[in-house]
Amino acid sequence: MTRISQAIAFSLICILPGCATSPTDYVAGLSQQDPKWQTPECEKMRKAALDYDAGEQRIYWSAGAVLGPYGLGLAAAGKEHQAKERKQLDREIHLQCSSQPFPKELQGTNP
């Protein structure tokens, strides 16, 4: 690969993984006045959010760069997978803890 194509590939890899709010941050942004907030299902989801954040592994681009182009691809795939997991958990949290319609960033996610 030439340097230009490597730079383009790296740029695309950096852009591809979507951003998703951390589940604990998402829970913190929900209204505690909502009728669903005190339900057992919501309490279970809030605990799941804390457990998820505590167990989430950090994936570093620098580790992928050491392994070359394949390593960057692996790092990108790992980050994308984590973002999908966070988004799915945020969606489940919203279903159990909020009476409001889904926010724009959670619409279109498969249940």
TrEMBL record:
<keyword id="KW-0732">Signal</keyword>
<protein>
    <recommendedName>
        <fullName>Lipoprotein</fullName>
    </recommendedName>
</protein>
<feature type="signal peptide">
    <location>
        <begin position="1"/>
        <end position="20"/>
    </location>
</feature>
